[in-house]
Amino acid sequence: MNLASTTQNLRRAVVTIACVALMAGGGQAMAQEDFGSDHVDSGGMLADLFIVRPVALAGTVLGTAVFLVALPFTLPSGNVEETANTFVAKPFEYTFNRPLGDFDHCGATRHACGGD
Prior knowledge:
Layout: H1 3-31, H2 42-77, H3 80-96, E1 105-106, E2 111-112
Antiparallel strand pairs: 1-2
Helix pairs in contact: 1-2, 2-3
């Protein structure tokens, strides 16, 4: 198996996972009856554990790489902290500091994910 074949298989797997995540999330949102409830169902937890968290982890790794590439350009302009927050801290928080199955609230204070 050569590198091109491995890369193509990896791309195909990522696209498949993303498509499944989009389809699973949309159907579940339509089926939910009580939009004001904080109750998390087992389907949401499973989707979070096996689809959303791995994709979010990949996004965290990719965001870190983008931040490192952008670092030489953000140092002179003085917005390193804002760039780090956008590309590293927010994806990290969404991946690791959120209750399983809760897609809206992050952190110990349960603030809105991605909020300032």
